[in-house]
Structure formats: C-alpha cells, structure tokens
Design a protein that fits this description.
- The protein is an alpha/beta fold and about 325 residues long.
- Helices cover about 45% and strands about 10% of the residues.
- The protein has 13 helices and 7 strands.
- The chain has helices at about 1-5, 10-15, 25-30, 35-55, 85-95, 110-120, 130-150, 175-185, 205-220, 230-235, 260-280, 285-300, 300-310; strands at about 55-60, 75, 100-105, 125, 160, 195-200, 240-245.
- The protein has a 7-stranded mixed sheet, with helices on both faces.
- The radius of gyration is 20 Å and the shape is globular.
Length: about 325
C-alpha cells in the first residue's frame, strides 16, 4: 500500500474519479490505511460506484439467500477482464459478507501498479503458459491454496474463480472440466461449497477486442496482439448498460456410482453450466443503451463490424 500510494497512476485515477478533490486525494487516503479490508471499503468500493455511475445503467443482483458466511467457492462465467470479480466484491461487502479471494491469470500482471492493486485485493496469481510439468505443478499449488481457504472454517475465506481459462470471446459460457479437476488434486471436491454465479452485461465487455479475436480466427495469417493494460482501461471506461449478478444455490456434488473421475469432473462442470445458463438476465430495450451500442459499432473498423453482431444487446 505504501508503494501504491506513491504511484503516479493513483493520481491519474484520483483526477478521473474525484475531480472535485485534490489530485493527491487517493494517495493520501491509501497512505492512511493499514489493512486489505480498509483498502477495499474506503478505496475500491467508492471507485466501483464512480465507475458504475459514469458507465452503466445500474447494477442489480438476485439470489443473496443462497449465500453463506461459510467459505464458498464462487464459479462464474467470465466476460470482463477485471470487473467480473470486482463488482461481485462490492455486492458481497455491501450486503454483510466478507470479500473473497480471486484467482487471476499472471498475464494480467502487466506492471507494478496492477500488481500492487492485486495484492491489496486478495488476488491469487495463477500461471499461464510455460512447460506442461510446470503448469501441472502450478495447478497443484493453487489446488492446495484453495483447499486451505475453503476448508478452514471461520479462519477460511471464500474464493472466486472463472469457469474457464480466459474470458468467453463468443458469448458461449461453458465450464472447463479441467477447472473441476484442479479442485480435486488435493482432496475430494465434495468438501467444498460451490455456488455458481451468472454475470450479465447488457453491453458485452470489450466487444471490439472480442470481435477482432473472432475476425482473427477467420484470418489466422494476421498477427493478433493482446494489450491487456489497454483492455483493462477499456473495461473500466466503456459503457456497460445494465449489469446483473445471479447467485445460485450450491450445486449437488454427489457422484453417481460407476462414474470414472473424468466423467465426474464433466458432470460437475455440467451442473455448474446448467445453473449459469439459467441465470441470464435481460432488460427491456433502452434507447440510451441502443445509442451507445451503435456508437461502438460505428467506431469499429469496417472488417470487424459483421463480427460485432455476435454481441448485439439482448432484450426481453
């Protein structure tokens, strides 16, 4: 926090989020804090509300009755590079629950500023790439950390993890059974309380980047470069329309007799998918959001405009 308080990037954020304050407002605020809880309550929550007020039509949620103060593994669809887990922490904290740890790929750790924000928000880095053996060892390490967090009773912590490695770039949300396999590497999955979460954005996050990705699948000869810092900034600043979080009942983790381990992982993944797919939220057509979507389409290069149609807002 001390290093973060000295970052010039914090001044940039402060000027954008709190233009009526001294540009050193956030730096001074962070300097006065001494815990993750105070950082989240006094910095991250107010910033989230600024983001929502300026770039969304509001956030809603359902299924809070399915939450528990016991350590819970939240598995959600993954649409936004940083906001999926961030906004969920806001909902948890403002409704009397502790925030969760967050599993995130090391590819997002693009600079010291982002690294420090991650450390101040209970984010656990999971390696991407490398050798097959190294990746396997990383999975075991994460599995051990998850088991320690999720089975330690009052001393434990809830955890958020995406249903797959990387964001959905085609609007098809499907749980990767390898995520379930990872959970089993250090003990029975039945030891956990798994709550699926459906996240619905009226305007697809990073739709331009996702359309470019889909275009690249049809034109593999063209280079594809992922600028993660650019996408993080775009996620924060772009219009989002309405946002909804649906928390589902904890899934059934029983294993029918006769299933192999692989078949069981697939079954659990299917149970997560069934819940997530049932939780999408749609809103009546909104002229403001429709205008914002047309602006996104108009700003896109001509070649990818057809691919953007995958992400048209969906209404009731």
């Amino acid at each position: 926090m001390s290093r973060l308080a000295q970052s010039d990037n914090v001044r940039v954020v402060s000027r954008w989020a709190f233009p009526d304050k001294n540009e050193a407002f956030l730096q001074e605020k962070i300097s006065s804090l001494g815990s993750i809880d105070s950082f989240q309550r006094e910095v991250m929550i107010p910033l989230a509300h600024v983001i929502l007020q300026r770039t969304s039509q509001g956030i809603s949620f359902s299924g809070l009755e399915n939450l528990s103060h016991s350590p819970t593994l939240f598995i959600s669809n993954h649409r936004d590079i940083v906001l999926d887990a961030y906004f969920m922490q806001v909902i948890l904290l403002e409704n009397g629950f502790d925030t969760s740890q967050i599993i995130a790929g090391t590819n997002l750790y693009v600079n010291q500023f982002v690294n420090d924000i991650a450390l101040c928000n209970k984010i656990i880095a999971i390696g991407r790439g490398g050798s097959k053996r190294g990746f396997g060892e990383e999975m075991i390490h994460i599995s051990e950390m998850l088991r320690q967090s999720l089975t330690s009773g009052e001393k434990g912590s809830s955890v958020w993890i995406a249903q797959r490695n990387g964001r959905t770039k085609n609007r098809i949300d499907r749980t990767d059974p390898s995520v379930i396999h990872m959970l089993s590497m250090t003990g029975p999955i039945a030891d956990y309380r798994i709550v699926p979460v459906t996240i619905t954005y009226e305007l697809e996050p990073n739709a331009l980047y996702k359309a470019q990705f889909l275009w690249h699948l049809d034109h593999p000869q063209a280079p594809l470069e992922e600028n993660y810092m650019e996408q993080i900034i775009s996620s924060v600043l772009q219009n989002k329309g309405h946002i909804h979080y649906c928390f589902h009942p904890a899934i059934d983790l029983t294993c029918p007799n006769g299933l192999s381990a692989k078949e069981y992982y697939q079954l659990v993944a299917q149970r997560v998918d069934t819940a997530i797919l049932a939780g999408y939220h749609h809103w009546p057509k909104c002229d403001t959001v429709e205008k914002q979507w047309m602006q996104i389409v108009a700003s896109a290069p001509h070649d990818i405009q057809a691919y953007l149609q995958t992400f048209n807002p969906q209404y009731q």
